Amino acid sequence: MIVKNFGCAVFGVEATVITVETNIVKGGLFFMVGLPDNAVKESHQRVSAAIKNIGLHMPRGKEITINLAPADLRKEGTAYDLPIALGILGASEQISTSRFTDLVVMGELSLDGEVRPIKGALPIALEAKKQGFKGVVVPRENAREAAIVQGLEVYGVEHLQQVVEFMEGRENMEPTRVDIAAEFDARSRGYPVDLSDVKGQENIKRAFEIAAAGGHNVILIGPPGAGKTMIAKRLPTILPPLNIEEALETTKIHSVAGKLAKEDALVSTRPFRAPHHTISDVALVGGGSYPQPGEISMAHNGVLFLDELPEFKRTVLEVMRQPLEERVVTISRAKFTVAYPASFMLVAAMNPCPCGYHNHPERECVCPPGVVQKYLNKISGPLLDRIDIHVEVTPVAFTELASERETEKSAAVRERVVKARNLQEQRYRGTRIYSNAQISTQQLRKYCRVDAQGQALLQKAMERLGLSARAYDRILKVARTIADLAGSVAIGNEHLAEAIQYRSLDREGWAG
Q1: Can you give the pLDDT at residue 20?
Q2: What SS3 string covers 110-178?
Q3: Is the distance from CB of 496 to CB of 454 less than 8 angstroms?
Q4: Which domains are seen in the chain, by residue range?
Q5: Given a cut of 70, is residue 189 above it in pLDDT?
Q6: 3-state secondary structure of 453
Q7: Residue 472: pLDDT band by 50, 70, 90 thresholds?
Q8: pTM score of the predicted model
Q9: Measured between alpha carbons, how far is 303 from 191 in angstroms, rounded to an integer?
């Protein structure tokens, strides 16, 4: 007898429906075809033990052939155990197959029949709804993330016995329900840290407000212990809250990577990722034999923080250049190509030299001549080109640290950031631009015009400070954001003057 039931394969952040065809005839062999990897092939032993341990039996003296169609797509992982087990039980007439056509079923089986969690439950549920299925059966741990797809019955299961009784109609399982709006509202502003935790550093907070308002990448240069990491961790708290579409897109990536906590149905706050400087190229941008999202995709719609930037391998930093521009990572293999979204804000931090005290107001740098420049040269010009704001961080005075004065909270800063982003949304409506940081050189001339006085100020600044040519466009973009924060249609001299301050690494002679 031949039966068909359905599962899903996940490629990138999208899923494809897989038909599990099971044919049982006289014989004594077991065949699995359809480009299964080793984990899928090994399901034979897991499925056989699970079926026996719930009191049913594997067909004896029978040839079992299982085809995973379409047969030219590679099938990976252990999530096919459950649909394969149901296919065998259905084809051997041990359970009813009447519900097979309505459901997509995925789950890993333990030897005693327990159903274990899988990766990619959200993309699977989205594809099931798109293809017209009535519901999905997934492990209990994955039920909440799948249930955020409205109009689809999601059944969370814990054991193969439970699934068998459900297919037979002996158990009426209640579908998992998630109120997306309530969950999103409850968690979208729930950060454990706040900008008011930072004592002093008002100029750095201002730079971060500008960066958040315009989507600008930032690099912080300062001695150890000046507060670079502390401030960077608080950047997500002043970014505009995620909307539902962004939250779904971000959740899909975390679901595919298997990084979604079982109590979370939705990623409702902006991600903050801070990989160690020993990270490899593949771990940062994604890839591998079976491609998985990297750190830059995990930071999608959030912040990627690279502490001790010069300590990262040069190749690791260079592979970020294309994603910073394109906001997507494309990974190609011989037979397939996957794309992961990678729209993130880059925040980098570094010491000014190996000893950490170059340009320190109180301590003397002990680095030999030329070492400071060599240290800075670890960061390539093309990468610096993609960083709009350079900020020098100085140590906080004791009086500031000991002060009981309350400082501005993240919520107040976020309100100004949201207003500035709304202005940009109106300005760039009808284009694929979402923030000032994304405008091209051609669009710069249209949206960032300055008057004759402004041009004179820019010229004087570039000549006196020895700013490089690449600094010109960056200054205009940042000035546009400063003007938006001030609610100004035109870019004024005061906006340009402030923007010029944020180009420390471009200044001639900064490294001595």
Answers
A1: 96
A2: CCCCEEECCCCHHHHHHHHHHCCCCEEEEEHHHHHHHCCCCCCEEEEECEHHHHHHHHHCCCCCCCCCC
A3: yes
A4: 2-168 (3.30.230.10), 186-426 (3.40.50.300), 439-512 (1.10.8)
A5: no
A6: helix
A7: confident
A8: 0.88
A9: 14
